[in-house]
Write a structure and sequence with these properties.
GO terms for molecular function: endonuclease activity. InterPro entries: Endo/exonu/phosph_ase_sf, Endo/exonuclease/phosphatase. It comes from Kribbella deserti. The chain contains five helices and 14 strands. With 246 residues, the protein is α+β, with helices and mostly antiparallel strands. It starts with 5 loop residues before the first strand and ends with a strand.
């Protein structure tokens, strides 16, 4: 953590199923205080696998809901955890095909965002409380809107300014993004470019949204020291988003 602000990484890690060493190098180069993960490993041994993944990043596993997880550096204190499942149709129809969808959800927690000259100390906390929330919306067009409304209600229940990140599975200009604007949220990824697929990015379906009261500096990956661009398509099918909150 810097003396002013918090370094947050949003990353869809593709179930930790690609090149794990490349993924670890990417995350370590980004050096986040908090990592908000989508498509975290699930099924048998979920917690064990998430703790093992976090350890390769030099972070600790804090908690998760559905396929989302929060990881944090040892110096970061998080509290008031909330996690919830969201409504999602089990059956999805697309192009005359029928497919099933895994349950959706979100998880968030509070932390203290230090101001200039106000480093956070575990014993005497100074600064401003904020909430960090991560979600992964579904592929069903109508279902995404309902999921998003539920996620926003969860974000607002913290009662403090919040950052919401995640894989929205929809590009700007769609109905979901109109709801983003209606909620008064700021799109902080507008200048970062496409995020999917990592091997040849052409779509921006990952988002970093903030409520009023937070300022976010989105850091281009090209400006991250020690990050090898060749690792990005090997690490996951999504590109990460690196943010500095003040």
């Amino acid at each position: 953590m810097t003396d002013a602000g918090l370094r947050v990484l949003s990353y869809n890690v593709h179930r930790w199923g690609d090149d794990r060493e490349a993924l670890a190098r990417v995350v370590r180069a980004c050096a986040p205080d908090v990592a908000l993960i989508q498509e975290a490993p699930t099924w048998w041994g979920t917690r064990r696998k998430r703790e093992a993944m976090a350890a390769t990043f030099g972070l600790r596993y804090v908690g998760g809901a559905a396929r989302n997880a929060i990881l944090a550096a040892d110096t970061i204190t998080l509290s008031s955890y909330q996690h919830w499942r969201v409504w999602r149709p089990f059956i999805r129809r697309r192009l005359r095909l029928i497919a099933t969808q895994l349950p959706g959800g979100a998880i968030g927690a509070r932390t203290v965002l230090p101001g200039e000259g106000q480093p956070v100390d575990r014993e005497t906390v100074s600064g401003r409380e904020v909430a960090l929330v991560v979600c992964h919306l579904g592929l069903h067009v109508g279902g995404r809107l309902r999921e998003f409304r539920q996620v926003i209600r969860g974000c607002e229940s913290f009662g403090v300014p919040y950052l919401l990140v995640g894989d929205l599975n929809e590009e700007p200009g769609g109905d979901l993004w109109a709801k983003v604007a209606e909620a008064g949220l700021t799109d902080n990824g507008e200048h970062l470019g496409p995020t999917f697929p990592a091997r040849a990015p052409g779509r921006r379906i990952d988002a970093a949204l903030t409520s009023p009261g937070l300022t976010v500096n989105a850091i281009p990956l090209s400006e991250v020291p020690g990050l090898d661009p060749a690792d990005l398509p090997k690490a996951s099918d999504h590109l990460p988003m690196l943010l500095h909150l003040t």
